[in-house]
Amino acid sequence: MHTEDLALVRRLMSRDDAAFRAYFDDYFPRLFRFILRRGHRKDKPPSLVLLS
């Protein structure tokens, strides 16, 4: 794990709102694209992404 990732995890664990926004902004698009590639329709996002 990279030093930046560890720092972000520590901030997330301390309930840092800015860290959560940074995490969400970075990982949500990638997770969404990953799930869409698994055969879900773009006009109906899978609930997994919406509930994450």
**Which structural class should the secondary elements be placed in?**
mainly alpha
Rounded average pLDDT: 81
- As a whole number of angstroms, the C-alpha radius of gyration is 13 Å
Distance between the termini: 22 Å
Helix content: 55-70%
Tally of distinct domains: 1
Q: What's the count of strands?
A: 0
Shape: elongated
Please report the number of helical segments. 3
Biggest sheet architecture: none
- Beta-sheet strand percentage? under 5%
Oligomer category: single chain
Order of helices and strands: HHH
- Unreliable stretches: none
Notes on the structure:
The protein has 52 residues and is mainly alpha-helical. It has one domain. Helix content is 69%, strand content 0%. It contains three helices and no strands. Helix 1 packs across helix 2. It is elongated, with a radius of gyration of 13 Å. The mean pLDDT is 81.
Task: Compose a concise summary of this entry.
With 52 residues, the protein is mainly α.
